[in-house]
Automatic annotation (TrEMBL):
Signal peptide: none annotated. Gene3D superfamilies: 3.40.50.1100. This is 1-aminocyclopropane-1-carboxylate deaminase. It comes from Flavobacterium reichenbachii. GO terms for molecular function: D-cysteine desulfhydrase activity. PANTHER family: 1-AMINOCYCLOPROPANE-1-CARBOXYLATE DEAMINASE-RELATED.
Length: 301
């Protein structure tokens, strides 16, 4: 685990508003950001149960799949990834995420989107156990009670001065941990990476306080969707601040926060901290898509 630090962004905002980014992306070279936090206690639990194998679910460019593959190898587990999209079966070599996961020992099971929807069904999990043997189940995106426990460790004593804590939202585990560990004076704002109002119910399963809200205006059309405006923003942000952002999660959240500052959403003198949840491995896959669409590619170094 590498030390995480808070980086004050050298951007002059109106009304004496300051913006700081917590560099969780630097916590580990391959298991970065919230994936490290979510897996920490799950891997300890898997060892406590004497499991030899981890099984999880994810899509074609999933940060979670890449993280489980590497962390599993590092910790001595076999890993199995149930991958959404049976058309990906013969496309591993052209997919940077799947190629990385396979190189780190992950065995794949490619399934149709219809079958993938069964991922939470007890009967389907039993069917997978019949096929692969006894495994420790890590949910899609890694979110469960142990993941939330890990994410409760993101905020530390040095973050007490911030009024607002902002993060991207995928499955809801990260924001739930932030909600639970936030101080009474802090408001947690989540920026969903996908469309739909179901996330509030998911978050309420784990969150123990009401100090939070979701801002659903910055998903750019839905999960995995980007446009030229977002690409140019991420690249300009990197040039000016030397902080790479992923286009699926953190890039959209940072865009949203800065847009809201200019729209005077935040009170004067607000101190805002942005949680960088990693996910930079997904840039290579996104750049393949951007090249195909003849759009500019994303910079990360």
């Amino acid at each position: 685990m590498n030390p995480v630090f808070n980086q004050l962004l050298n951007i002059n905002f109106p009304n004496d508003i300051s913006l700081t980014i917590k560099r969780e992306d630097l916590i580990h070279p391959f298991v970065s950001g919230n994936k490290f936090r979510k897996l920490k206690y799950n891997l300890l639990q898997a060892k406590a149960e004497n499991k030899q194998m981890l099984l999880t679910f994810g899509g074609a460019f999933s940060n979670h799949i890449a993280a489980v593959a590497y962390a599993g190898k590092e910790q001595g587990f076999k890993t199995i990834g149930i991958i959404r999209g049976d058309e990906l079966f013969d496309k591993i070599e052209e997919n940077p995420t799947l190629k990385f996961a396979q190189e780190n020992g992950m065995q794949f099971e490619f399934v149709s989107r219809e079958e993938y929807r069964l991922k939470s069904e007890t009967s389907y999990i039993e069917k997978l156990k019949d096929k692969f043997g006894d495994f420790y189940l890590v949910p899609e995106g890694g979110t469960n009670e142990l993941a939330v426990k890990g994410c409760e460790e993101i905020l530390t004593e040095e973050d007490a001065a911030f009024n607002y804590v902002c993060c991207a939202v995928g499955t809801g585990g990260t924001i739930s941990g932030l909600i639970n560990s936030a101080l009474p004076n802090q408001k947690i704002l989540g920026f969903p990476a996908l469309k739909g109002d179901f996330l509030k119910d998911e978050i309420r399963i784990f969150a123990k306080k009401d100090n939070w809200d979701l801002i659903s205006d910055y998903h750019f059309g839905g999960y995995g969707k980007v446009n030229l405006e977002l690409i140019e923003f991420i690249n300009a942000f990197f040039e000016e601040n030397k902080v790479p952002l992923d286009p699926i999660y953190t890039g959209k959240m940072v865009f949203g926060v800065i847009d809201l500052i200019h729209k005077k959403y935040f009170p004067a003198h607000s101190k805002i901290i942005l949680i960088h949840t990693g996910g930079l491995q997904g840039i290579d896959g996104m750049n393949i898509k951007l090249n195909q669409k003849k759009l500019p590619i994303l910079k990360k170094q």
